[in-house]
Amino acid sequence: xxxxxxxxxxxxxxxxxxxxxxxxxxxxxxxxxxxxxxxxxxxxxxxxxxxxxxxxxxxxxxxxxxxxxxxxxxxxxxxxxxxxxxxxxxxxxxxxxxxxxxxxxxxxxxxxxxxxxxxxxxxxxxxxxxxxxxxxxxxxxxxxxxxxxxxxxxxxxxxxxxxxxxxxxxxxxxxxxxxxxxxxxxxxxxxxxxxxxxxxxxxxxxxxxxxxxxxxxxxxxxxxxxxxxxxxxxxxxxxxxxxxxxxxxxxxxxxxxxxxxxxxxxxxxxxxxxxxxxxxxxxxxxxxxxxxxx
Amino acid sequence: xxxxxxxxxxxxxxxxxxxxxxxxxxxxxxxxxxxxxxxxxxxxxxxxxxxxxxxxxxxxxxxxxxxxxxxxxxxxxxxxxxxxxxxxxxxxxxxxxxxxxxxxxxxxxxxxxxxxxxxxxxxxxxxxxxxxxxxxxxxxxxxxxxxxxxxxxxxxxxxxxxxxxxxxxxxxxxxxxxxxxxxxxxxxxxxxxxxxxxxxxxxxxxxxxxxxxxxxxxxxxxxxxxxxxxxxxxxxxxxxxxxxxxxxxxxxxxxxxx
Lengths: 294, 258
Fold this sequence. Notes:
Strand content of chain B: 15-25%
Helix content of chain A: over 70%
Oligomer: heterodimer
Number of helices of chain B: 10
Structural class of chain A: mainly alpha
Radius of gyration of chain A: 19 Å
CATH architecture of the domain at 84-179 in chain B: 3-Layer(aba) Sandwich
CATH class of the domain at 84-179 in chain B: Alpha Beta
Structural class of chain B: alpha/beta
CATH superfamily of the domain at 84-179 in chain B: P-loop containing nucleotide triphosphate hydrolases
Order of helices and strands of chain A: HHHHHHHHHHHHH
């Protein structure tokens, strides 16, 4: 039971992190390969706040999220004005730098030996409360003029500009919110595991987040949530296969991408209406698009 | 009446190629001006300069007394110049309704906190956006298809949706880049009626690139003819049609190939 509750807590934490990446990749069309950096900053900042200041848990969590958002500003500011590739490369680089810094700042972070003794304050209730709140707030953001402007950038940046949308501004907004969610997830993780180690935020973690978004489907909040749930449970279910775990995980992801390139719910939300239509009749084939779009 | 748009000595060079040379244009409010010329004459480059997508090499673009040369596209759009594209650029994965709603964003000015917490201000302004978007969809007769995904629309409807999205900006000047491309004679006749009606009912000023001569000749007040980046004729549709240089460069070609 304790084991299941533990997995459920991690599921909640992953939902928050994946949601952040989903907003950026899935809704704004800005690709990131270094989102673990924001989780790391959030995790270490909130853990250190708890250990050194003893402030209330929620304040420390907010501090972690705020630190991650602050980190996003110098990363996004110079690169989001340029074409997409620059930001991807910068995000990769920054993620490596953050991990290296944490490893080398022994005095503060515990370095490669890790940071231990963080009080386990991330109860399943708090985690799920925050996860559900994040889903609702992100959903609200997307379904507003600001969110629609982000989506317009994903769909066609040039056309978006011709309807008076400033690409830099909305990419920056999406990045900062996304980093905040990453930092929040990091803080929750730190107070769940009780120990932090730089390797928890290595490239693999960033990659996992990207895979979760693609697997769930671009432009779908419910897809991302579902995908976070499935992809957190999957490795646990495969635990019996020990070292073959990641191989099978990888193969499954590849199969999904080949069989369903749009992900579980590409550009769609899992709503009651959607389910009703799905079970009533097979979907009519979509009309062939006529005329180019790019 | 002062001109809405004044373009003087506009030139664009791409490396060694002069795409547009010494282009001059004045449009008064409410006018419908046609820009014609053979393929590669530089018409779209003129549009791209007017909308900030390409920076002019030389010359000046003045819109309502403001110089546009160095402004980014989104600021020019904000000032009131909307456009459509020759190769349609819709938000293809969104519905028809969402396409137009997105373009109505300037109606609202609520912030992030209003949006995530759904404040009263958010709800009020969103209601206004929805109403404006639906009204435009009715105008362009896409209301019945508002929940269809844009990419699934038939070609003619995609063109109309792009115009609807441009109208959602409530522009003062509308630039239409070959709106009748790929349309049959009946569709293009309907379209010219629609454009003419837009100009009158919306008091819009329109600059139109078009290959369909019937569209241009029926509804334009004035026509400018480009060839190899140079302006070879300007005047009323009838004058331009009778101009020997135009016949040679453009209409003549068509006759020869017919």
